[in-house]
Design a protein that fits this description.
The complex is a heterodimer of chains A (162) and B (379).
Chain A lengths: L9 H24 L4 H34 L1 H22 L6 H31 L4 H17 L10
Helix pairs in contact in A: 1-2, 1-4, 1-5, 2-3, 2-4, 2-5, 3-4
Chain B lengths: L1 E7 L2 E6 L11 E10 L1 H7 L14 E9 L11 E4 L2 E2 L5 H4 L16 E2 L15 E4 L2 H4 L1 E2 L8 H4 L5 H12 L6 E5 L3 H12 L4 E6 L2 H9 L3 E4 L5 H8 L5 E6 L16 H9 E9 L13 H4 L7 H6 L3 E4 L8 H9 L11 E4 L3 H9 L8 E4 L3
Parallel strand pairs in B: 10-11, 10-13, 11-12, 13-14, 14-15, 16-17
Antiparallel strand pairs in B: 1-2, 3-4, 3-8, 3-17, 4-5, 5-9, 6-7
Classes of the chains: A mainly alpha (162), B alpha/beta (379).
């Protein structure tokens, strides 16, 4: 039976993650401002980290290789370097005690890094991919499938991509 | 080419930058002859957006086509064109419906693209000698023959005239109705003019700047100076205690109280108070989904304390969002062509592009007499 997805194309699917994470970051700042207990902040931060881990993984495994030729090596390398930066921040958040003072600062640093990455991805990579002869509609299916698979896995930090 | 470059909060400079050029076969290249500073440019100027330093501002553009891409059929070299501030593709689900301000393909992930605007795609602005126009056949409004002598009128078709008109469309203004407009800036003034065109019986414009209120009176509106407060009471009295049939928000999230402090919910709640029960409100002032640099805690999260109880009890309704310029600009251009309106009446300054930095400074400080600046790149 053919797997389907409600997302029209790969860009819609990937950007839905961007939007979901953006809202979680806004909520996180609100929790900090409102002095919410560290358990509440931690639980949201962990959701953000998991969402981003899966997102970067499906991009690197499936989306980036498919669009690399159209987008160009320079932009791709930049995006992968930004992912690496995000992964480092995610790892340090996951290894940190949520009561620690650095916790909120690190989450906010991740938020800024992701903002920047998303902006560039939308304005450069997605735009170029949409304008290239790539079947983004077909590509949504393996992305969706892999995402479901990874999300279903226990919420442990995913392995870094080599 | 020379261009106005954003350098950081309250810093802009006119610099030499690489020429804009045709990048895709569907592009048109325009030599800009008039380009306005918009109130929404000030959100970026003041550092209230994620605008990256180094980008060229300017989304209210008019000029002459000097080159067209191989896939452009309709637009010809030599055409004088006005460019809607929104960039649409013409073929997505929203563009098909005339909602080109919410184009789904020109700025992936976000609905809506524009020239030189934070979060609205990688497109350079037109406060420059040259502008690249994507999907030129769709986006260029080719101007009537008299466009040279009425250039300062036609350039208002890029944004503020359609945006002011859109406010009255969202509010559903019909002949004989009364309209209250918050904001006597360029967009509010265009909303007042549009309400008059539509045959409103009473148009009230609220602001605290006397020079701008004077312009509202010139448009035939009743000026309501809210400097000392009491604006709401004045409107209720003028409408016999009922409130206006329709309301327009033409200020946005950086609206200020009489002490020049930002109170983001001020105009929205005043509209709920001054529009009649069952009346409709059109909101074209810019509001943002987050504003990390705001002082107000709610505003940081893109929220406001809205008088929803009163809004519901009064059975009001509301329309929001940026104008789909292409839905209106051709028809509005005929009002200019046939001398029915002269939107350049709000222009206070026509300056060479080189003077843009001081124009930004004066406009940002709402210096008396600085209502609308048209920049003229070197010919």
């Amino acid at each position: 039976m053919a797997l389907t997805t409600p997302f029209e194309n790969a860009v819609d699917l990937l950007d839905a993650d961007h939007k979901a994470v953006k809202q979680m970051f806004i909520d996180y700042s609100a929790l900090c401002e409102d002095g919410a207990p560290s358990a509440a902040r931690r639980s949201l931060a962990e959701r953000i980290c998991q969402e981003l881990t899966v997102h970067t993984q499906i991009e690197e495994e499936i989306f980036y290789p498919a669009v690399r030729e159209a987008v160009g090596d320079a932009l791709m390398e930049e995006a992968i370097a930004e992912h690496a930066e995000a992964k480092e921040l995610i790892a340090s958040i996951q290894g940190m005690k949520s009561a620690s003072e650095n916790y909120d600062t690190t989450v906010k640093k991740l938020s800024r890094a992701i903002d920047q990455h998303v902006l560039e991805e939308r304005e450069q990579i997605f735009l170029k991919a949409l304008q290239a002869p790539i079947d983004l509609r077909a590509l949504a299916i393996p992305l969706y499938k892999r995402k479901k698979q990874l999300m279903g896995a226990p919420a442990t930090p995913a392995k870094e991509n080599a | 080419m020379r261009a106005l470059v954003y350098k950081g909060p309250r810093k802009v400079a006119v610099e030499k930058v690489p020429d804009a050029e045709i990048e895709r076969p569907t592009d048109v290249l325009v030599k800009i002859t008039s380009t306005n500073i918009c109130g929404s440019d000030l959100h970026m100027y003041e550092g209230r957006t994620n605008m990256e330093p180094g980008r060229i501002l300017g989304h209210e553009n008019l000029g002459e086509v000097i080159a067209v891409g191989a896939a452009v059929d309709r637009v010809k070299v030599g055409d004088r064109v006005c460019l809607p501030f929104n960039i649409g593709c013409g073929f997505c689900e929203n563009c098909e419906q005339g909602l080109s301000g919410f184009c789904l393909t020109c700025n992936p992930g976000m609905a809506g693209a524009a020239y030189g605007f934070a979060g609205m795609g990688p497109y350079s602005g037109g406060q420059a000698e040259l502008l690249r126009v994507p999907y030129g056949d769709f986006n260029c409004l080719v101007l009537p023959r008299d466009s040279a002598e009425k250039e300062s009128d036609y350039v208002m078709l890029a944004d503020i005239f359609p945006t002011g008109y859109h406010a009255t469309e969202l509010a559903g203004v019909r002949p004989g109705e009364s309209v209250v407009i918050y904001g006597a800036g360029p967009v509010g003034l265009m909303a007042a003019m549009s309400s008059m065109i539509k045959g409103a019986s009473q148009v009230m414009v609220v602001d605290t700047h006397k020079d701008r209120l004077a312009l509202a009176e010139k448009a035939g509106a009743i000026a309501i100076d809210d400097t000392e407060g009491g604006g709401v009471e004045k409107i209720m009295e003028l409408t016999g205690g009922k409130g206006a049939d329709r309301g327009c928000e033409c200020v946005g999230y950086q609206c200020c109280n009489m002490h020049r402090e930002e109170v983001p919910n001020l105009t929205m709640n005043n509209l709920v108070a001054t529009v009649k029960a069952t009346g409709r409100i059109g909101v074209v002032g810019v509001f943002v989904p987050e504003d990390p640099n705001a002082e107000d805690k709610l505003e940081k999260r893109g929220r406001m304390a809205f008088d929803f109880g009163a809004y519901w009890t009064k059975g009001q309704s509301m329309g929001t969002g940026q104008a789909n310029v292409k839905a209106y600009n051709r028809l509005l251009s005929r009002l200019i062509e046939k001398d029915r309106v002269k939107p350049s009446w709000i222009v206070s300054h026509e300056l060479p592009l080189e003077k843009a930095p001081e124009a930004y400074e004066n406009f940002d400080q709402r210096k008396k007499g600085w209502t609308k600046v048209v920049l003229k790149p070197p010919r």
